[in-house]
Amino acid sequence: MNAKEKELIEGLVDEFRNTLIIKFESTKALTMNAHGAESEFHVYASCVADYYCLDKNKMLHTGNRFSDVKTARQMLWWLCRTGESALPFSLSRLGIMSGGFNHATVIHGSRVIDNDILYDQPTRRDVKAIASLLGYDIEKFGMSYTTKTKEG
After folding, report:
1. 3-state SS, one letter per residue, for the chain
2. What is the pLDDT of residue 117?
């Protein structure tokens, strides 16, 4: 093997090594983002449970259908799906993390809060308070409300 062939092989090896490093770093970043989002979900769940004076584990359990627990869970789903407070989970994943609910239940629960926030002052007050605890404001956007990061 002559010097030119050896140099070419070393160049290919370096390029391959750099490609692997870049792929590893991007995979690591994705894993950390997913882990960070799961941590954020649990922060949201704890905040909602504390606001409603509920046990977080009871709130995130399919067998609990009491109206206060159901409302808290729906509030959690709304926050996890709306505006700038939205988390990067599929509806199915969000339902599973919330205790094993299916995607249709998550959609329905979010829509319940969407409708209630327009016409029910206590629900709007609760949404504003919980969003504020999480560092968000809510604002009217057309015929619905959305979350926005607090400024200042």
Report:
1. CCHHHHHHHHHHHHHHHHHHHHHHHHHHHHHHHHHHHHHHHHHHHHHHHHHCCCCHHHHCCCCCCCHHHHHHHHHHHHHHHCHHHCCCCCHHHHHHHCCCCCHHHHHHHHHHHHHHHHHCHHHHHHHHHHHHHCCEEEEEECCEEEEEECCC
2. 92
pTM: 0.73
pLDDT of residue 50: 92
- What is the topology classification, in CATH, of domain 3-149? Chromosomal Replication Initiator Protein Dnaa; Chain: A; (1.10.1750)
Angstrom distance (rounded) from CA 146 to CA 35: 25
Retrieve residue 84's tokens: 């700038």
Q: What is the pLDDT of residues 4-38, one digit of tens each?
A: 888 888 887 777 677 666 665 554 444 445 566 77
What residue spans define the domains of the chain? 3-149
Q: Are 110 and 81 in contact (CB under 8 A)?
A: yes
**Is residue 78 a contact partner of residue 72, using CB atoms and an 8 Å limit?**
no
One-letter amino acid at 36 equals: G
